[in-house]
Structure formats: structure tokens, C-alpha cells
């Protein structure tokens, strides 16, 4: 078992759980309180702290701080949360910048002129697939919009990102919020440079890259960028820094805020989500990456994208798969050299001019792995051409390189099995240089060699060579959803994501010190694309109103067919995967119809919303007739097993998800409506949930679109989604004995945890007040440890210690009908994301700092079901573990 002890709140396995920073809290002040009155209150309570951020923003006044010692963080946080200066107190979550990297950076030793594409129209594939090219052809560039990139900073020295920072520059404003955490750090707070990660620099280029030698621009090169550095060099974002950054971006007059980062949780109550929601409510659109965990199945969306009002962005494959190539030349039989391009690997090639020699003239999967053919030359004096690995064979790239290296080869060019190339690496020092060419190039050479011609290749070290973008069409998945893109909805069944944009295989700017350009992938790349399109539409429509912009992009987007990673279905992809579909910028900017909503939430069976109304407004100058119809999307089961018939096996399944032929049915008040210029019509929709034959126990999620076609030639759609089960019936906790059991902390830490039987005796040290004891118990201690597996999210989880026999005195209380000693340290937990498991060692100390006497106890976990009432004990899923004896050493 692979365990992580996540400091601060939970121990979880798997990556889909909130991480928290030890001892660290974020507070929002009540009423007119301020940092002085708050810290004064802490001093009066004798609470020792170290201040982090002072947050004095229009929409958020508060502070973050670290508790430096004390009896128990849980008991201190209970005291602090009740202080009159405090409106809300949260532990500080840590986010990660979601990077799904295609590694193709070439370190540039020297910069040479790079090949230019023909000037003229915008032909960048991501712009063509989203109609950005059509807006650009009209001269629309997002002029005047201030777009904040809350990320790792921006390398504004990059010539394609303006080359400077400050008024008049492309990166016109910003702040290093991370720098505020470390007064006197070498990075000044007023300098939002991206010093190390590159992520924000890539995001910035997607929005606003200026013309450059790689022949592309950002989607909205007319905007002014704001750079807010919030992430460390390791891509970590602390939630207090994020709350500060988005508020600063708002206060600095940003018109649009992009957040390509995540906290893995599907609840919209986290402080960063609430902060984003407040900003949207004040009229500034916030656009956020929905997450890259789609392969783990439904309910993998993240904070802040799941926040109410925030536009959560899904990720589509680029229709091309670009790679950065270096230019070289070859000659056949001493004829004039001709150029070709190849993708550098690691190690890169030196400057060489050597004959090309191929291990085989046939396409053979084991090419390069066996004996050399008779008459093979001295391999150190040639460049060896070998076929890429074929998945049907054990002869992998590493085997080829190792075998060829052992025969003296120094330089190897691999030709791919298709049109694409990638950056190869070797796991050991087999050869001195590797590179890759596409299949067509390899095949042409093989044919020449087979015919007896002599080929000499002249390679220049990549850092000094001319570079070019090699961008073959993606004929397999271009334009489809990326299976990595996280699925909605939120646990409160908000429709998520909102919209999709190209994010898979995206060329953009990168740190100058690391080559300046790079191909990267993920919803991190899709989100800034939408932010840029918002700026374009805002220029065309003269509004930044979040609901209006979202309505236009949603209604005009192109829903695509469902691709589950294995095949393309003939039905459109679920709304909870693609949102409204692939964004169509021109249609959104010039649509003459406005819907007053951008999606409809049908909720679950207990809260099923059967009646919906929406209005269609005709913004055009003539009368238009609208025709309504229903387009079904694929219905998917979230689990492979039913919680009704097989609760032990119920769990959220990874993709590909099983589909079922059952859909909601919709009846419209009218299927055809005439609307005069400037007038509106209200349509009512009566929905019925999918037929009874659907297996409710497998958590089915259904969705679809209301198609609205107009006689003026518009084809709009309104997405809807719902869940065909009662969320309150879904068990939060799993009874599977492999994931829910009593064990010992020391055995867990050496990966040998076994379920322990009733009445196991744990003899442990008397707990001390050291907060590190709470956050990081000594891994060698045999502490009783509760492991509870979770299926779905829970807004409120208690882990209580129930006394059975006690040697001494112990005050008990009754909570939700059960007599308990108190809660385990760190409990209760709010807004638990679901999936994975909590793993809690018990040191004998309760969350209020009291130490229990020796005795016989048991763990009782109670998790509030989705839509449950926290005051009603029947709305909790409760599980207890076998009783144990607790004894203290000495
Ligand atoms: C916090 O910020 C406010 C406003 O900028 C300032 O007046 C105050 O002195 C700051 N307090 C601390 C403790 O830094
Ligand atoms: C990308 O390449 C750099 C430099 O070679 C290397 O340090 C890094 O580990 C690579 N990252 C991935 C994800 O392969
Ligand atoms: C650019 O696009 C416009 C409109 O689509 C077209 O008329 C024109 O021929 C294109 N120009 C070039 C150089 O492709
Ligand atoms: C190419 O040139 C080299 C040296 O000038 C010569 O030895 C060789 O025969 C030539 N090869 C062909 C195929 O003409
Ligand atoms: C679904 O219903 C529950 C219970 O009324 C409510 O709390 C939740 O906000 C609803 N979800 C949506 C998206 O309306
Ligand atoms: C609406 O337009 C779309 C796209 O043109 C078309 O596929 C669909 O059949 C139309 N629906 C109706 C009811 O006309
Ligand atoms: C555990 O100990 C209690 C007494 O402390 C006893 O009543 C119970 O039967 C024991 N359980 C087992 C399984 O031995
Ligand atoms: C807690 O652990 C951290 C990291 O190991 C250490 O820096 C800190 O001094 C410890 N605090 C106490 C109170 O022991
Ligand atoms: C209570 O203490 C007695 C005497 O030390 C011991 O025999 C007994 O096992 C203890 N009971 C529990 C529940 O710890």
C-alpha cells in the first residue's frame, strides 16, 4: 500500500484529496475587525503564532498565520474560530499546478533565426478549430482587456511576451504574492517574473503571445496581461496565497481572471472557491481549469473551477500534434544537401556528418534488438537508423539503444511508426546522441538505402541549430475530448464543466532560459484559451458581464461525440465531461440570440427539478422563428457495482465508464416560437428522469442539450445534467475490509498493515502537546490507527473515540445519539473530497487536547451523506472498527 501522511488534516492514499499545510490557517475577519484586533485577540488567549499574509482587499479582509506551538491545533482552532474578530477560519490547503507535460524542451545554447511560417491569416490550428481565426481576421484582438494570470508568474523578458514589465508593456501589471510570504526574499513582491516553473509563461503565451519566429500568436494578443505569482518552483500553491492573489488581481482592475491550478475537491465551499465566486458576483469573470484527473472517472473536478459562477474549462485535443524540431540536412550520393527536421532527444546529438546506416530494410518490431546483419559497418562511424518500438513486441526503445550501444553505436535516429515524433530518453548511458524522425522520413531513407544509395546526415547540436515547428494533423483524436480532462459535477450537483477548449498538445511560450517555446498539455492550457476568447468577445460585445459571456460561449459551443479513450461513440459526450462543448469564438461574439441561462441542473431523484424555464432573446433586427429539439448525450454509470445490491463493491470507477441507453425525456411548452426584434420568449421545459430500468445503484449521470435552431441560421444549445439516484442514499464510507479496518501506525508506515482483531492492546507513550506529534507522529510508534475508505464526498466527517471500559475518569458527551469521549485529533473535517481513505493514528489525545485514560475504546466514523442534514443522525453513514485496549508506557 502506498501511503502518504498529509500534514494538517488527513492521511489519504491516492491523489484526490485535499492537502493541508501543517499548523497553518486562513481567517476572514468579522465586521470591522482588522489584523491588529485579531492578533491582539490571539495574544490575549496566549496563542503563539507566526503571521503569514495580511489581506486587506475590497472583497476579503483577513490574514493567514502559523501556530507555532500549543496543546493541540484542533483545540486552538476551536478557540480561534469562536473569537469575535473571526468570521471564518479554514486550514490552508495546498493546490498543485496541474501539469500534464509533453516534454519537448530543448535547451537553447545559442539563439539563431528560427524558421518563419508564411505571413497572412491566422492558421494556428487551435485558433482555426475555435473560430478565433475569424475574429482575428476582423481585427479583434481583445484590445483594452486586462487579463490576470494567477500562476507561476510570467517570463516577461520573453520577446513574444513583450520583453518588459509595467505600464505600456504586454505584461502591464502584477505582483509576486508568494514573495509576500517571505519578507526579504530575493524575489521582490512587485516583480511577478516566472523564475523557475514556466507554467504561467506558457499560459500567458496561449492568451497573448506576440508574433514570433514560431509563427503563432496568442488568441488575444491585444490584451494587457497581469501576472500574479502564486506558485512555488515545485508548482505548489498555498490556498491563502491564492485567495490573496485573486483578490489582488480583482483590486488591480482585472477584467478577466484565469486560474490554471487546482485543489482536488468537488465542494465549492473552500476559501479559494468562495473568493472566486465573490469576484464573479462583482462582475469579473473567473475562468478555471477543471482538472486533469478525468481518467479516475466522474466527480474529479477541482477547486476553484467548481465554484458557483466560475467557468470550469475542459480540455480538447488540438487538431494538430506539434513538436519542436531542429533543422538538419542530408545528401544522397554526394548530391546537394537537402533539409530535414528531427526531434532532439536526451542525450542530444553533437555536430556530426556521418553516413546513415539502417539495421534493417524491413519494418520489423524487433528491429535493432537482435544480432547485427552480416557486413555491418563500425557502428561508431555511422548514424544508426532504427524503427520505433512497436507495442506488440518486447523490443522497447531502451532495449534497442542498449543493444546498439553494446555494438559500438554512438548516434541513433529512430523513425516513428506514424506521423508523430517525441523526445526520446535513454535510461542508461547507452549511446551519445538520440533523435527522432517521422515514419515518412524514415521510410524514404530506408528505400534509398535498400536501393543501394549512400546517405550522409549532417546534424547540428540542437542548441545551435535552426528550429522549426513540426505539426502533423492529429488524425486519431484531433478535436475530441481529452480523457485526462476531469469530469463534473460538483457534489452539490452544479453542472460542471461549463465549456471546452483546446488544451492537449499546445505550442506556447516557455522560460527563455529553457528554450523559450514548448508544447504542453492539460486543462491548464484550455483555461487560458477561454480567458482569451472572453477578451475577444468582450471587445466585440462591449461587456465583461460573466453571466452574459458564459451564456454566449455556452449556447454557441460545439458539443462533440463521446470518446472514452478506446472508441468514438455515435452519441455526443456527456455534459459532465465536455460542458457545452468546444468553444466557438466567432459565433459567441456575433450571435444575435441570448439565452438567460447557460445550463440547467436537474439535480438528483430526491430534488429532481421537473420544471425549468428559460428565455430566448432576439437581439437581431428581424423576426426570427426558433425551433426546439432535444439532443441526448451519453448516460454513464459512475460505478461498476450497485450500492443497493452490492455495497461492498460500490466505488467510483475509472474510465472508460460504462454507458447505458437511458435518457431523460423533455417536453417543451412549444417546439417553435416566433420572436420579434428585441423581444424575448419564455420556454418552459418539463423533464422526466430516465426510465425505471436504469440501475440507480450504480450512480447514473445523464445529460443532454436543448437544441435551438433559428430561421436566421443560428444553431444554439443549452446543456443540462442530472443524477438518476438519491445522493442521500449513496454510502459515503465503504465497508470493504481491505480499505476500512483497524491497524497499527508502525505497520502502515512500513507498508505491511494488516487488519487487527478486536481487543488488540496498543501500549503507547503518553501524548505530549508538541504539534508535530499531532501532525507527524513518529512512524515507529504502534498507535491504534483507523482506516476508512470513502466512496463519495462528504460535507462533514466526524471520527469519534467511543469509550467502552475506562480505568480512571473521563468526561463524555453525547453526539448524534452516541456517547463519546471526544473526536480524534484533526476532526471533524468539512468538505471531504471523496475517494481514497482517511488514515488516522490515535495518540491518546482528543481534538480538544484532553488525554484519555487507559481503557477499552473504539473508533466511530460518521460521514454526512450528500444533501444530508448535519443535525440529523440518520443522515450520516456510520461505521465503527473493532474495539482495542489502550495502555500507556511506563
Ligand atoms: C496590514 O495591512 C494594512 C493595510 O495595508 C496596514 O495598514 C497594516 O499596517 C498591515 N498590518 C501588518 C501587521 O502588516
Ligand atoms: C523534462 O526534461 C527535463 C530536462 O531534460 C527533465 O529534467 C524533466 O525531468 C523532464 N520531465 C518529464 C516530465 O519528463
Ligand atoms: C484570409 O482569410 C480571408 C477570409 O477568410 C480570405 O478571404 C483570404 O483569402 C485569406 N488570405 C490568405 C492569405 O489566406
Ligand atoms: C562521394 O564523394 C566521395 C569523396 O569525394 C567519393 O569517395 C565517393 O565515391 C562519392 N560517392 C558517390 C556515390 O558518388
Ligand atoms: C440540488 O438540491 C439540493 C437540495 O435542495 C441543493 O442543496 C443543491 O444546491 C441543488 N443543486 C443545484 C445545482 O441546484
Ligand atoms: C438544428 O441544427 C443542427 C445543426 O445545423 C442540426 O443538426 C439539427 O438537426 C437541427 N435541428 C432541428 C430540430 O432542426
Ligand atoms: C474483548 O474484551 C471484552 C472485555 O473487555 C470481552 O467482553 C469481549 O468478549 C472480548 N472480545 C473478544 C472477541 O475477545
Ligand atoms: C516540527 O517539525 C518541523 C519540521 O520537521 C520543525 O521545523 C519544527 O521545528 C518542529 N516543531 C516543533 C515544535 O518541534
Ligand atoms: C484496568 O486496570 C486493571 C488493573 O491495572 C487492568 O487489569 C485492566 O485490564 C484495566 N482495564 C482496562 C480496560 O484497561
UniProtKB/TrEMBL annotation:
The active site is at residues 151, 199, 524. It comes from the Eukaryota. Pfam families: fn3_5 (PF06280), Peptidase_S8 (PF00082). Residues 601-720 form the C5a peptidase/Subtilisin-like protease SBT2-like Fn3-like domain. GO terms for molecular function: serine-type endopeptidase activity. One of its GO terms (cellular component) is membrane. InterPro entries: C5a/SBT2-like_Fn3, Peptidase_S8/S53_dom, Peptidase_S8/S53_dom_sf, Peptidase_S8_Asp-AS, Peptidase_S8_His-AS, Peptidase_S8_Ser-AS, Peptidase_S8_subtilisin-like, Peptidase_S8_subtilisin-rel. The keyword Amino-acid biosynthesis does not apply. One of its GO terms (biological process) is proteolysis. Keywords: Hydrolase, Protease, Serine protease, Signal. Residues 1-17 form the signal peptide. Residues 142-558 form the Peptidase S8/S53 domain. Belongs to the peptidase S8 family. This is Subtilase.
Amino acid at each position: 500500500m502506498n501511503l502518504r501522511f498529509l500534514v494538517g488534516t488527513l492521511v489519504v492514499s491516492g491523489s484526490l484529496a485535499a492537502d493541508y499545510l501543517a499548523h497553518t490557517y486562513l481567517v476572514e475577519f468579522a465586521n470591522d475587525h482588522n489584523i491588529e484586533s485579531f492578533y491582539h485577540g490571539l495574544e490575549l488567549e496566549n496563542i503563539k503564532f507566526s503571521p503569514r499574509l495580511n489581506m486587506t482587499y475590497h472583497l476579503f479582509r483577513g490574514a493567514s498565520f502559523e501556530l507555532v506551538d500549543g496543546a493541540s491545533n484542533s483545540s486552538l482552532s476551536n478557540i480561534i474560530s469562536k473569537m469575535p474578530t473571526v468570521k471564518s477560519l479554514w486550514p490552508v490547503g495546498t493546490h498543485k499546478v496541474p501539469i500534464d507535460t509533453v516534454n519537448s524542451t530543448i535547451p537553447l545554447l545559442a539563439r539563431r533565426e528560427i524558421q518563419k511560417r508564411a505571413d497572412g491569416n491566422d492558421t494556428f490550428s487551435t485558433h482555426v478549430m475555435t473560430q478565433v481565426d475569424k475574429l482575428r481576421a476582423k481585427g479583434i484582438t481583445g484590445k483594452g482587456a486586462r487579463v490576470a494570470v494567477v500562476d507561476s508568474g510570467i517570463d516577461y523578458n520573453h520577446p513574444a511576451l513583450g520583453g518588459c514589465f509595467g505600464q505600456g508593456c504586454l505584461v502591464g501589471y502584477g505582483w509576486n504574492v508568494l514573495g509576500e510570504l517571505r519578507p526579504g526574499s530575493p524575489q521582490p513582491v512587485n516583480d511577478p517574473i516566472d523564475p523557475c516553473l514556466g507554467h504561467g509563461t506558457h499560459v500567458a503565451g496561449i492568451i497573448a503571445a506576440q508574433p514570433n519566429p514560431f509563427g503563432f500568436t496568442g488568441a488575444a494578443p491585444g490584451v494587457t496581461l497581469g501576472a500574479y505569482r502564486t506558485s512555488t518552483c515545485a508548482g505548489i500553491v498555498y490556498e491563502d496565497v491564492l485567495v490573496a492573489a485573486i483578490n489582488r488581481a480583482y483590486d488591480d482592475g482585472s477584467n478577466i481572471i484565469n486560474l490554471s491550478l487546482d485543489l482536488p475537491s468537488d465542494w465549492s465551499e473552500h476559501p479559494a472557491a468562495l473568493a472566486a465566486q465573490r469576484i464573479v458576483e462583482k462582475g469579473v469573470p473567473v475562468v478555471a481549469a477543471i482538472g486533469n484527473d478525468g481518467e479516475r472517472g466522474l466527480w474529479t473536478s477541482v477547486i476553484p473551477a467548481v465554484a458557483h459562477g466560475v467557468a470550469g474549462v475542459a480540455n480538447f485535443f488540438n487538431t494538430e500534434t506539434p513538436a519542436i524540431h531542429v533543422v538538419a540536412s542530408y545528401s544522397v550520393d554526394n548530391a546537394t544537401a537537402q533539409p530535414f527536421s528531427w526531434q532532439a532527444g536526451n542525450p542530444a546529438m553533437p555536430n556530426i556528418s556521418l553516413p546513415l546506416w539502417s539495421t534493417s530494410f524491413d519494418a520489423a518490431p524487433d528491429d535493432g534488438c537482435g544480432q547485427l546483419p552480416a557486413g555491418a559497418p563500425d557502428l561508431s562511424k555511422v548514424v544508426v537508423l532504427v524503427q520505433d518500438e512497436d507495442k506488440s513486441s518486447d523490443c522497447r526503445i531502451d532495449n534497442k539503444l542498449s543493444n546498439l550501444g553494446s555494438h559500438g553505436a554512438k548516434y541513433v535516429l529512430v523513425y516513428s511508426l506514424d506521423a508523430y515524433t517525441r523526445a526520446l530518453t535513454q535510461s542508461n548511458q547507452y549511446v551519445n546522441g538520440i533523435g527522432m524522425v517521422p515514419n515518412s522520413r524514415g521510410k524514404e531513407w530506408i528505400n534509398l538505402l535498400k536501393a543501394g544509395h549512400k546517405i550522409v546526415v549532417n546534424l547540428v547540436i540542437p542548441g545551435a541549430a535552426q528550429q522549426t515547428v513540426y505539426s502533423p494533423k492529429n488524425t486519431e483524436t484531433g478535436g475530441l475530448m481529452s480523457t485526462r480532462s476531469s469530469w463534473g459535477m460538483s457534489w452539490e450537483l452544479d453542472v460542471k464543466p461549463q465549456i471546452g477548449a483546446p488544451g492537449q498538445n499546445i505550442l506556447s511560450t516557455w522560460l527563455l532560459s529553457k528554450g523559450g517555446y514548448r508544447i504542453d498539455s492539460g486543462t491548464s492550457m484550455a483555461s487560458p484559451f477561454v480567458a482569451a476568447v472572453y477578451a475577444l468577445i468582450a471587445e466585440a460585445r462591449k461587456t465583461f458581464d460573466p453571466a452574459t459571456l458564459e451564456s454566449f460561449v455556452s449556447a454557441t459551443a460545439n458539443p462533440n461525440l463521446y470518446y472514452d479513450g478506446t472508441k468514438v461513440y455515435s452519441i455526443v459526450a456527456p455534459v459532465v465531461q465536455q460542458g457545452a462543448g468546444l468553444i466557438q469564438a466567432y459565433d459567441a461574439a456575433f450571435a444575435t440570440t441570448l439565452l438567460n441561462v447557460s445550463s440547467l441542473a436537474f439535480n438528483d431523484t430526491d430534488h429532481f427539478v421537473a420544471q425549468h424555464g428559460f428565455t430566448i432573446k432576439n437581439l437581431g433586427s428581424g423576426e426570427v422563428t426558433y425551433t426546439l429539439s432535444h439532443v441526448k448525450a451519453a448516460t454513464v454509470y459512475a460505478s461498476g457495482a450497485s450500492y443497493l445490491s452490492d455495497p461492498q463493491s460500490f466505488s467510483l470507477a475509472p474510465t472508460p465508464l460504462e454507458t447505458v441507453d437511458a435518457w431523460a425525456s423533455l417536453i417543451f411548452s412549444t417546439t417553435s416560437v416566433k420572436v420579434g426584434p428585441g423581444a424575448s420568449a419564455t420556454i418552459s421545459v418539463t423533464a422526466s428522469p430516465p426510465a425505471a430500468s436504469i440501475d440507480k445503484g450504480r450512480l447514473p449521470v445523464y445529460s443532454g442539450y436543448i437544441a435551438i435552431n433559428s430561421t436566421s441560421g443560428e444553431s444554439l444549445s443549452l446543456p443540462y445534467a442530472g443524477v438518476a439516484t438519491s445522493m442521500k442514499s449513496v454510502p459515503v464510507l465503504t465497508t470493504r475490509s481491505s480499505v476500512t479496518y483497524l491497524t497499527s501506525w508502525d505497520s502502515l508506515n512500513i507498508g505491511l498493515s494488516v487488519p487487527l482483531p478486536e481487543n488488540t492492546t496498543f501500549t503507547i507513550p503518553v501524548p505530549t502537546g508538541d504539534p508535530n506529534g499531532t501532525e507527524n507522529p513518529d512512524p515507529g510508534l504502534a498507535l491504534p490507527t483507523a482506516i476508512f475508505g470513502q466512496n463519495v464526498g462528504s460535507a462533514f466527517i466526524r471520527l469519534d473515540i467511543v469509550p467502552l471500559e475506562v480505568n480512571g475518569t473521563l468526561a463524555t458527551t453525547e453526539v448524534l445519539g452516541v456517547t463519546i469521549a471526544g473526536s480524534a485529533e484533526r476532526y471533524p473535517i468539512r468538505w471531504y473530497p471523496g475517494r481514497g481513505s482517511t488514515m488516522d493514528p490515535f495518540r491518546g489525545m482528543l481534538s480538544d487536547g484532553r488525554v484519555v485514560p487507559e481503557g477499552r475504546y473504539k473508533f466511530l466514523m460518521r460521514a454526512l451523506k450528500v444533501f444530508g442534514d448535519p443535525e440529523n443522525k440518520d443522515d450520516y453513514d456510520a461505521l465503527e472498527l473493532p474495539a482495542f485496549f489502550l495502555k500507556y508506557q511506563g
